C-alpha cells in the first residue's frame, strides 16, 4: 500500500491518494476505483480575509494547479481542518455545483460555517468531534469494502481531530489520518488490528515399525498463509503546530497500539510565524515545534505545510515576525535534534530523523 500527496497550491492545500498497491498510480482528473482520495483545506481561487481587508487579507503568490474544484475528479472526502478562511475557503468550495454529492468532513466550527452558506443541496457534512482516548466514537471510521467476501478483511480510513487546549486563536490543532486497505489475506479484529493467528501444529511423525529410534518431533512453524505487510499508513496534519501534551494521548492510545508509529508523514510548517501576544501570539511553530513531534514519535517524512510566502496585507499582519529556514538548514537542525534526543534517552543510533520535503505546486510525494 502507499499514499501519494500532491501539493495543489503553494500553501496548505493537498490531495491525498491512498492506494492498496505499492507505488499505486493516480490522476487528479480521473480517480481509480480502488483508491481513496482526500482533498485537504482547498483554497484555489481568490483571496482570504479575516473580518475585513483592512484588518487582514492574503493572496497567493504562486498560481494553484487548478482554480476550480470542478476541474478535479470528485474526491471521496473534502477535509476541512479549521474555520479560518484560508482553510475553509468559501469561494473555492462554491466552485462545486450545489447539487454535487460531495462528502465534507470538518471540525465543528467549520461544519457550522459551511452549513450557514446554504450552498450544497446534496452534500454529506460530517462533524469530527475532539478526540478522547476513552471514547471510541470520537474517531471517524470509514470502512473500505473488500472484494473477497469469503476470506477478505475490510480496510479502514480513520480521521481524528485533536485541538490545542487554551488556544485563544483556535489555530493550533491536528488532524490524524490512518489508512489500512481491504485485504484478502489478513483478518482484522474489531479494533482494526491484525489478528495473531495460531501456530501451525507439527506434523505427526510417521514411525516405521522396523525403526526402534523414532525421529525427533519437528519444531512448530508459524503459518505463512496470511503473512503480509500490515503496518497502516499514518499522517498527522498540523500546519500551525500543536503542543506535545495535547497530541500525546492520540499518539500513545490510538496510533501506537495499531503499530502506526513512527508516522508515515508529518505535515507541519517549517518557518516560524509570531504575532504579538495581544494578536494571538504564536501563529506557526515551525521547525522547533515540528522537531519536538518527530523526536518523540518519529516520522518517515516531514512535509512542509503552510509555508507559502503569501502577499499579506492589513494592520494585523504588520507586526508578524518570521523565522525562515532553507530546507538544507532545517534538515541538519532536525537531524541534530533527533540525535541529541536519542542519546539522552539511551537510544543512540537506533533510528534516523525524517526526510524533510518541500513540494512545489503540482509536485507530489509518494510514500
Description:
- The chain has 367 residues and is α/β, with parallel strands linked by helices.
- The protein has a single domain, classed as Ribonuclease Z/Hydroxyacylglutathione hydrolase-like (Metallo-beta-lactamase, Chain A), CATH 3.60.15.
- The protein is 15% helix and 25% strand.
- It has five helices and 20 strands.
- The protein has helices at 90-93, 108-117, 244-255, 286-297, 327-344; strands at residues 2-7, 14-19, 36-40, 48-49, 57-59, 77-80, 103-106, 124-127, 140-144, 155-163, 173-180, 233-237, 263-268, 272-274, 282-284, 299-304, 311-313, 321-323, 355-357, 364-366.
- The strands form four sheets. A seven-stranded mixed sheet has the order 8-7-6-3-2-1-20. The chain has a seven-stranded mixed sheet with strand order 9-10-11-12-13-16-19, covered by helices on one side. A three-stranded antiparallel sheet has the order 4-5-17, with no helix packed on it.
- It holds the Pfam family Lactamase_B_3.
- InterPro entries: RibonucZ/Hydroxyglut_hydro.
- This is Metallo-beta-lactamase domain-containing protein.
What's the topology here?
Layout: E1 2-7, E2 14-19, E3 36-40, E4 48-49, E5 57-59, E6 77-80, H1 90-93, E7 103-106, H2 108-117, E8 124-127, E9 140-144, E10 155-163, E11 173-180, E12 233-237, H3 244-255, E13 263-268, E14 272-274, E15 282-284, H4 286-297, E16 299-304, E17 311-313, E18 321-323, H5 327-344, E19 355-357, E20 364-366
Amino acid at each position: 500500500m502507499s499514499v501519494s500527496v500532491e501539493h495543489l497550491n503553494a500553501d496548505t492545500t493537498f490531495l491525498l491518494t491512498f492506494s492498496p498497491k505499492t507505488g499505486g498510480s493516480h490522476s487528479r482528473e480521473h480517480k481509480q476505483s480502488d483508491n481513496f482520495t482526500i482533498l485537504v483545506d482547498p483554497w484555489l481561487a481568490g483571496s482570504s480575509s479575516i473580518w475585513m481587508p483592512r484588518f487582514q487579507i492574503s493572496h497567493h503568490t504562486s498560481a494553484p494547479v487548478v482554480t476550480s474544484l470542478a476541474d478535479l475528479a470528485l474526491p471521496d472526502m473534502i477535509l476541512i481542518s479549521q474555520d479560518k478562511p484560508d482553510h475553509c475557503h468559501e469561494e473555492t468550495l462554491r466552485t462545486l455545483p450545489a447539487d454535487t454529492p460531495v462528502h465534507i468532513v470538518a471540525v465543528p466550527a467549520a461544519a457550522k460555517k459551511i452549513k450557514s452558506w446554504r450552498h450544497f443541496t446534496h452534500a454529506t457534512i460530517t462533524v469530527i468531534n475532539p478526540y478522547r482516548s476513552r471514547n471510541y466514537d470520537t474517531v471517524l471510521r470509514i470502512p473500505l469494502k473488500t472484494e473477497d467476501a469469503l476470506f477478505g478483511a475490510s480496510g479502514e480510513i480513520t480521521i481524528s481531530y485533536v485541538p490545542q487546549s487554551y488556544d485563544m486563536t483556535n489555530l493550533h490543532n491536528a488532524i490524524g489520518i490512518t489508512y489500512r486497505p481491504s485485504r484478502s489475506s489478513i483478518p482484522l479484529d474489531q479494533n482494526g488490528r491484525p489478528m495473531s493467528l495460531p501456530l501451525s501444529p507439527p506434523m505427526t511423525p510417521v514411525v516405521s515399525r522396523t525403526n526402534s529410534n523414532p525421529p525427533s518431533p519437528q519444531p512448530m512453524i508459524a503459518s505463512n498463509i496470511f503473512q503480509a505487510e500490515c503496518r497502516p499508513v499514518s499522517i498527522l496534519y498540523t500546519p500551525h503546530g500543536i503542543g506535545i501534551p495535547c497530541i500525546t494521548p492520540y499518539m500513545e492510545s490510538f496510533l501506537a497500539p495499531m503499530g502506526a508509529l513512527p508516522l508515515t508523514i508529518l505535515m507541519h510548517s517549517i518557518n516560524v510565524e509570531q504575532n504579538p501576544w495581544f494578536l494571538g501570539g504564536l501563529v506557526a511553530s515551525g521547525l522547533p515545534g515540528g522537531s519536538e513531534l518527530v523526536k518523540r514519535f518519529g516520522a518517515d517524512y516531514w512535509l512542509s505545510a503552510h509555508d507559502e510566502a503569501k502577499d499579506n496585507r492589513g494592520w494585523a499582519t504588520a507586526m508578524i515576525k518570521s523565522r525562515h529556514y532553507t530546507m538544507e538548514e532545517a534538515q541538519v537542525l532536525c537531524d541534530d535534534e533527533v540525535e541529541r534526543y536519542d542519546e539522552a534517552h539511551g537510544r543512540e543510533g537506533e533510528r534516523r530523523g525524517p526526510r524533510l520535503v518541500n513540494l512545489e505546486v503540482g509536485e507530489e510525494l509518494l510514500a
